[in-house]
Write a structure and sequence with these properties.
Elements (H helix, E strand, L loop, with lengths): L5 E8 L9 E10 L2 E9 L8 H7 L3 H4 L5 H12 L3 E4 L2 H14 L8 E3 H8 L8 H8 L9 H18 L2 H12 L21 E6 L5 E7 L2 H8 L7 H9 L2 E6 L3 H15 L14 E4 L10 E4 L11 E5 L2 H15 L16 H4 L13 H12 L13 E6 L6 E7 L2 E6 L19 H14 L4 E5 L5 E4 L1
Helix pairs in contact: 5-8, 6-7, 11-15
Length: 474
């Protein structure tokens, strides 16, 4: 790492949202060939007010930055200081995100190799649970004369890296740095630099081949690392090798969180039918057992999502991608519980079933077990396969917020169907049109039920009226 030109950087900002907040101070320590070359730091006029809590934390006040240069004033000089250097920062996603956004506002494009000292510490000291800067200072006896000021914190990072050479072997450090900086081999069909702008945010990515044929749709909580992993060079997954040979274009859709990425991925796979996606493709044979012993049905009825609205149906059990899976599941339940295949409709005929002759049926087919008892036992066995009822009165929006950027999305849902996503409340008035794509989907049902179980009472729910407008919140 230190054999190359390195810049240790720290930023102080008005907040944590790179797309909204601004830089208030920059600190840089330049290192060449393992030796200190120079230090540079400056206050920055953020062109907005610094919140009182941030003033207290950093000691940087609005009065201090009033006459300081703006980032645009510094941009060209800063770009020259950073050009061609490995950028080292603590929680590098934060600093790198702010840099890219500030340079973009100044009309400049910035991209660099980035090494995160949080990740480096985790790799080299896995026995420790905390890797924030204060923990590193205490653990390694580092000296920080000006904590929460940019140049003071940048100097600490340089000290930390120097400490590594005394506490770890060269081989250990090189292996950790190499793993964190591993550069993917760009597929021949992609233009140079095409992956530079992929953000480190949640979202969905799409790979296209010749004639814009969809090759693959994927999702990740970190788009950049996931896309680059496809082209890591070792191609441990055969699918990645085939994609690398065929790909000519990459697209991505940013989301504020994992839920939005999961639901968009499931929808796009079904819409585009990519060559290398198999599992999430829509099944036209999606079916379930419908059984209500309180009704007039003595046996379960196999119903299909193409014929019925599973979001509105009650007494559904199991969601199966094909009839064979549904029948095999019911047959396994019958064998396990001693239920009668003839009564269940799995076999035709009258009189004792074959299972009864083998003493595997309790005799519902010959009157040894009455229908009510047989139905009760079937219902108990089916309970774990019960399709959950929609837990809301009607259409709702589930709000998902990214605490880092402050952005939020509202995912519009109706009876387990994903209707679409809006990013502001005023868009809700157009949300009624989203219902045109309402279709019960097995993968979306699984995504939502898992998400609801995980987040429980922490769900941010907006109840919507029939036109899509907000009717209430809880």
């Amino acid at each position: 790492m230190l054999e190359q030109r390195v810049v240790f950087l720290d930023l102080e900002t008005t907040g944590a949202a790179a797309g909204f907040d601004r830089v208030t101070e920059i600190g840089i320590v330049e290192v060449n060939g393992g030796k200190l070359a120079s230090e540079w730091g400056t206050l920055v006029n953020p062109e907005t007010r610094i919140p009182p809590a941030i003033e207290t934390l950093t000691g940087i006040t609005n009065a201090m930055v009033r006459d300081a240069p703006t980032f645009s004033d510094l941009a060209q000089d800063l770009m020259e200081r950073l050009a061609g250097r490995l950028l080292v920062a603590h929680n590098a996603r934060f600093d790198y995100g702010f840099l890219k956004n500030e340079f973009k506002r100044a009309g400049l494009r910035y991209a660099s190799k980035v090494l995160c000292t949080v990740k480096l510490s985790r790799r080299l000291y896995p026995e420790h649970h905390r890797h924030n800067l204060d923990s590193l200072i205490e653990r390694h006896g580092l000296i920080c004369e000006d904590r929460h000021r940019a140049l003071g914190d940048a100097r600490v990072l340089w000290q930390f890296v120097q400490t590594l050479s005394r506490e770890k072997t060269r081989a250990e450090i090189d292996a950790a740095v190499e793993a964190l900086l591993r550069t993917p081999s760009l597929p021949a069909g992609l233009a140079e630099g095409v992956l530079d702008d992929i953000p480190e945010t949640p979202g969905v990515y799409l790979f296209y081949g010749e004639n814009d044929i969809p090759l693959y749709v994927g999702k990740s909580v970190n788009l950049r690392s996931r896309v680059l992993a496809h082209f890591s060079g070792d191609h441990a997954v055969h699918k990645d090798m085939r994609i690398s040979r065929q790909i000519t274009r990459v697209e991505w859709i940013e989301t504020v969180g994992e839920l939005g990425a999961l639901m968009r991925e499931a929808r796009l796979v079904k819409q585009l039918q990519p060559v290398h996606n198999r599992w999430l493709r829509r099944s036209n044979d999606l079916c379930a057992w419908r059984f209500d012993p309180a009704g007039d049905a003595a046996k379960p009825l196999l119903v299909y999502a193409r014929d019925e609205d599973f979001g509105d149906l009650q007494h559904l059990y199991g969601l199966f991608r094909a009839k064979r899976e549904a029948v095999n599941t019911l047959r396994a339940i019958a064998e396990e519980q001693g239920l009668c295949p003839i009564v269940l409709g799995l076999e035709s005929g009258k009189g004792p079933c074959f299972a009864h002759q083998l003493k595997k049926c309790r005799g519902a087919c010959v009157g040894k077990e009455n229908t009510l008892t047989h139905s009760a036992r079937l219902l108990a066995a089916l309970h774990k396969l019960r399709v959950r009822a929609w837990p809301f009165r009607g259409r709702v929006g589930i709000r998902e917020t990214d605490s880092w950027s402050g952005k939020s999305e509202l995912h519009v849902l109706d009876r387990w169907c994903y209707l679409g996503t809006v990013r502001s409340d005023w868009e809700l008035f157009d949300a009624g049109e989203l219902g045109s794509e309402k279709l019960f989907d097995l993968d979306t049902y699984k995504i939502l039920t898992r998400y609801f179980e995980r987040h429980g009472g922490r769900l941010q729910v907006v109840e919507l009226d029939g036109t899509g407008g907000a009717a209430g919140r809880h």
